[in-house]
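Consider the tokenized backbone below.
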């Protein structure tokens, strides 16, 4: 319960509250604008003050950072852990909170300033203590694992919605900046459901987003050219592994021959020598053919043919002439015999040279085979080094392809795995809803009872499991209007407050800005105020409402209910410069 708001700013209107319904009334002058209503009378500024003293971030645009308000300290007296404690905060030093009261047993102990006579702690530790003492939150160390857990500031905002943050747009959302996971986690925690499940859903959404970006990148661009499809990489890996295996086997069987270069040079010389001998054999072969042909043509002329020719001509040759023919014939025969002897000698010589060359070719060929056997059994050191480097490159390529294949398969299989994880989370959520049926039943009946007190037909609260986490829906029959939405928020907030009080959670108060009743029929406003008063008294929480005096219903209350008895003594007005909450005007 909040007991008092004060300040060292002399013009500040000290506010004192009691149990049950408390109405902070603002007299709104004729012709005043909404801006005057906020900065003049101070109803909305009061909500900002509540958040300021209870740990809200103080950004540059905050009214408490303005030149007019930053020098001053604002304090609140409230019940924390069953004890009255006062806390003060200054806009010039918003990170420091001054505490008075029994705080020795707090989870994060404040430091006591002996000279000033009060305790002091940082705003972060102030929020940690409030989260632990009001909501039972563990004192977080700021670990990465704490990202999707309920936070004090988010839970607290359901008990003091801010118009400036868009807190009156829909029941489940206290700010337009509030993410879906935070809504799910906070409401589950306040209702008593398993809040870790929506946190896991948010982690899954993050993984799905990363997986989607990876799949998108893998399908195109530079990353796509690097990874490619798993099937293509698998084929390339198989081929690369086979090549690397062949190179490993060659290295295992490789023997280094120290004289490799010399043997290789000798083998080349033998080859050139054998080629030269073969050419000479071919040339001698041609020569033998010519010599044998010439030898067959070398015959002596037949002189009988000459004698016969002269006889047929009727010429009778004398004996002397015939003797000369015999001499010529003998001469020719001698020449031919010499020629035939010379050709025969040339033939024998050519044949002998061929035989010798064949023998030499056979000898050199045997030596070349010996050298080649040595060369085939091993190789040069340079060749071995080159082969080892190539094998290393092949192994590196295999490892690179294996890693790329693993990543590609992971990318392609991630979607299926995440779908399975989503299905498992949905089942876990369904099981949790079934296991906590009593809590859900109590929430549904509480919302129904509250809405039935305002309208002829009761509204409904629906809690269901979806593939995106728990879904909370409220419905009140009637025309789709801002007034109906606001009454949905009213019933939802009262339901959350009542269930939180029963579970020992919450600050023990609920604050509604006058904006909650914008567009709401005067009779429904009267019913809502009386209903809030009755439920606050019955359940034991404090209900604070800010309203314009001209919007406060004059009728519509049940007999015996006096609304004026719940209006606090301090009233605000925008009619004068000093009539507002801070007693001064500022832009």
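A designed sequence for it:
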């Amino acid at each position: 319960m909040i007991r008092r708001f004060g300040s060292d700013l002399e013009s500040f209107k000290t506010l004192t509250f009691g149990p049950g319904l408390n109405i902070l009334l603002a007299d709104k002058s004729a012709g005043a604008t909404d801006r005057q209503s906020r900065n003049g009378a101070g109803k909305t500024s009061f909500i900002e003050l509540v958040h300021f003293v209870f740990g809200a971030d103080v950004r540059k645009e905050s009214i408490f950072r303005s030149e007019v308000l930053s020098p001053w300290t604002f304090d609140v007296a409230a019940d924390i852990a069953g004890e009255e404690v006062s806390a003060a905060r200054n806009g010039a030093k918003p990170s420091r909170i001054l505490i008075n009261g029994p705080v020795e047993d707090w989870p994060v102990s404040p430091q006591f300033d002996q000279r000033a006579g009060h305790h002091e702690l940082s705003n972060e530790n102030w929020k940690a203590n409030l989260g632990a003492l009001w909501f039972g939150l563990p004192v977080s160390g700021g670990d990465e694992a704490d990202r999707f857990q309920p936070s004090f500031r988010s839970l607290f905002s359901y008990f003091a919605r801010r118009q400036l943050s868009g807190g009156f747009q829909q029941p489940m959302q206290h700010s337009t900046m509030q993410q879906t996971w935070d809504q799910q986690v906070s409401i589950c925690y306040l209702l008593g459901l398993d809040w870790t499940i929506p946190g896991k859903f948010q982690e899954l959404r993050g993984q799905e987003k990363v997986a989607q970006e990876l799949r998108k990148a893998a399908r195109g661009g530079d990353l796509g050219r690097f990874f490619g499809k798993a099937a293509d990489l698998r084929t390339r890996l198989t081929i690369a592994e086979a090549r690397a295996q062949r190179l490993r086997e060659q290295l295992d069987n490789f023997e280094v021959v120290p004289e490799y270069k010399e043997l290789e040079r000798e083998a080349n010389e033998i080859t050139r020598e054998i080629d030269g001998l073969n050419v000479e054999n071919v040339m001698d072969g041609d020569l033998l053919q010519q010599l044998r042909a010439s030898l067959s043509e070398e015959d002596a002329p037949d002189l009988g043919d000459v004698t016969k020719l002269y006889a047929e001509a009727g010429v009778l040759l004398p004996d002397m002439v015939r003797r000369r023919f015999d001499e010529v014939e003998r001469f020719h025969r001698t020449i031919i015999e010499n020629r035939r002897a010379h050709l025969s000698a040339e033939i024998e010589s050519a044949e002998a040279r061929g035989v010798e060359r064949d023998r030499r070719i056979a000898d050199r060929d045997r030596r070349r085979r010996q050298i080649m056997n040595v060369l085939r059994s091993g190789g040069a050191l340079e060749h071995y080094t080159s082969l080892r480097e190539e094998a290393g490159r092949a192994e590196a390529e295999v490892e690179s392809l294996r890693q790329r294949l693993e990543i590609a398969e992971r990318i392609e299989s991630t979607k299926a795995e995440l779908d399975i994880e989503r299905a498992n989370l949905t089942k876990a959520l369904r099981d949790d809803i079934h296991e906590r049926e009593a809590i859900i039943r109590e929430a549904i009946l509480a919302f129904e009872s509250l809405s039935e007190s305002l309208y002829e037909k009761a509204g409904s609260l629906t809690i269901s499991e979806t593939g995106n986490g728990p879904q909370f829906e409220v419905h009140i029959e009637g025309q789709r209007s801002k007034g109906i939405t606001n009454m949905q928020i009213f019933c939802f907030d009262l339901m959350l407050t009542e269930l939180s009080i029963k579970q020992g959670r919450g600050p023990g108060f609920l604050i509604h800005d006058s904006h909650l009743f914008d567009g709401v029929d005067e009779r429904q406003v009267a019913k809502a105020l009386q209903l809030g008063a009755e439920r606050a008294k019955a359940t034991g929480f404090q209900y604070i409402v800010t309203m314009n005096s001209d919007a406060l219903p004059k009728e519509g209350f049940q007999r015996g209910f006096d609304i004026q008895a719940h209006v606090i003594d301090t009233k605000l007005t925008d009619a004068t410069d000093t009539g507002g909450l801070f007693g001064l005007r500022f832009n």
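Residues 34-39 have pLDDT under 50 and may be disordered.
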